[in-house]
Amino acid sequence: MSAKDNGVPSGQSAKQDQLDQFRSDATDQPMTTNMGLKVNDAGNSLKAGIRGGTLLEDFWLREKINHFDHERIPERIVHARGSAAHGVFELYEAIPQFTKAGIFNDVGRKTPVFTRFSTVAGSKGSPDLARDVRGFAVKFYTEEGVWDLVGNDIPVFFIQDAMKFPDLIHSVKPEPDREIPQAQSAHDTFYDWVSLTPEALHNHIWVMSDRGIPRSLRMMQGFGIHTFRMINDEGVAHFVRFHWNPVQGTHSVTWDEAVKINGADPDFHRRDLWDAIDAGQFPEWELGLQIIPEEDEHKFDFDLLDATKLIPEEMVPLQVVGKMTLNRNPDNFFAETEQVAFLPTHLVPGLDFSNDPLLQGRLFSYRDTQLSRLGSVNFEQIPINRTLAPNHNDQRDGHMQMSVPKGKTAYFPNTLGGGCPFLTSQKEGAFESYTERIDGNKIRARSESFVDYYSQPALFYRSLTDWEKAHTADAYTFELGKCTYPHVQKRMLYQISQIDEALAQQVAEGLGLEVPDSVDGPVNQAISADADVEKMQPPKKKIYLDKSDALSLTFRMGSKGIATRQIAVLAADGFDAEDFTAMTDKLKAENAVVKIVAPHGGTITCSKGHDHEVFSGIMMTESVLFDAVYIPGGKKSVDALLKKAKYKKFVDEAFMHCKAIAVDGEGIQLLKATHVGEYMDDDKAVFVDGKPQAFVDAIAQHRNYDRMEVAKMVPA
What we know:
Elements: H1 10-20, E1 46-48, H2 59-69, E2 82-91, E3 110-119, E4 134-142, E5 145-152, H3 165-172, H4 188-196, H5 201-208, E6 222-223, E7 228-231, E8 237-246, H6 255-264, H7 268-278, E9 284-293, E10 319-328, H8 333-338, E11 351-352, H9 357-374, E12 442-444, H10 455-462, H11 466-481, H12 486-499, H13 501-511, E13 566-570, H14 577-589, E14 593-598, E15 603-605, E16 611-613, E17 616-617, E18 628-631, H15 635-642, H16 645-656, E19 660-663, H17 668-672, E20 686-688, H18 692-700, H19 708-711
Parallel strand pairs: 13-14, 13-18, 14-17, 18-19, 19-20
Antiparallel strand pairs: 1-12, 2-3, 2-10, 3-4, 4-5, 6-8, 7-8, 7-11, 8-9, 9-10, 15-16
Helix pairs in contact: 2-9, 3-4, 4-12, 5-10, 11-13, 12-13
Keywords: Heme, Hydrogen peroxide, Iron, Metal-binding, Oxidoreductase, Peroxidase
Active site: 79, 152
Binding site for heme: 76, 116, 165, 362, 366, 373
């Protein structure tokens, strides 16, 4: 049948035929390189020995990562949605016994930093409150050069080897045939991949917990993820992991809040960070180190080179050595936040890498990505990326060259340039890689010491409080409920059951499914076609630690202050001036942010005839954007609030989300008109007749999770 007979214009049909030449279908086809070379392993890089460094000759790793790094122009493929700020790092105590790095030995220094936070999966236009891992990258402009500590807000990663990073991101990104969903892991391709790749389960359960939806970028931890090395003046090395702990504590929002915040203010995190710094409430993090002597490398029940494993603080306590303060917002988002380039290869003397196969792949990938995204080998000359240390070498020219190198020579060694720039020794401050003996066969495989996939996610889940466990089960139920393939759901339920049977049962009940006793095929399919399949299957979980309090948000509340907490004051004309002043003076003295939510914008008048500026009319804001609610007395004011149904919804939502609520005088009538009235007499975070100090103390606790079961009965 001709195109004309088929009702398709001939020109359109010809174009379709042209496009068809480039279509491909991988069904029933073996995996190959782009040159058609068949491959037997898509999950392991080529190493010098089973636990050795990754080899530069691994053309398959470089092809796969190189292609992935260049998939987007110019937006970052991952971590596209970001916010950043300038600041300083100050050292508490010198640690020359561990490292010769100047940043860890000069207590008088104030090292400038630029820190960027980000979501991972979404595009630049995605909302801030997606359930996701958050990037936490710090650029230190040290006197010896730039050091980039590039990590996340979760201490472990999804994968163990960089070879699998494109697969991870391809699975979680919008499905390629329909380009949905955006910034969500709740879909078939992601859970198909996770259910076949149990090494991802540890990071994944963190994301399914409340850690996946932080209250603020200022209230989340940061981690270097990998095991690095510190080297002292004697050349002695120690392994180290880096932790950032927020002084304000580690806090989250509920999933119901996150969904509503994304609709009410998709820039919630970005705005919160900017406003806090703009108001002089500078966020702070303390830097803690877990330091392990090299001779203790193999003393743990897990492998230090495995980025999917954390080191419990009960086993290796944190040594807090300094503090980072973010004190200045960027002057231009594009020039700074968008163009900043973080590279794990940016090191200073006294720091070095380990053979972590995920880290080894990142050492190649990040530079390759910046070449694509910023369009030039000279991206390090962009002002936000420039080092403060003197910069001299024989590199020349290139697209967007912004320096003007002088002289006749651009090679080494030379005599015409006086032998300059000249080499310096390690004693003179030059960087030298740590001397490590490597003796092993060239091999594309993974160490059997990496195969325990269930013990640490089980430890994490055991360490959660009941309300955290409930939220985690709800998250799994929601996410798997979005999957449309029953075999994917069932396989994932089996994997969850290996972490915790009760958790899997709770999720299965929500899905209307049974937890399977087994799965078809190997549990772990992220292995070589030539591997010993049995050896690479995960064993049953081990319990080498009953629980770790450091893993639970309940024990990470931080300082008990309420600085920067957003307090909604529900009021209208005629509100009681004395009660209002007593409460808000106390809140402001604690550096909380007090905002009047009135029936309209502009101003309202208190009982003493004074005008007060309104932050927002009730129809222009939402309860989820605030940390607590206060209702002053005044009959005229409260009567006006009772005429607006949204005020009742506002209070109900605050109660449902376990927030502190305080009322004075006639304000109790609004409480009685809501579902809160049924329970307020027994609730330790609902205060009648003000009680400013008690209200402040309740806000500092972040939530009253004792209310959670009652709050479920309040309509959303």
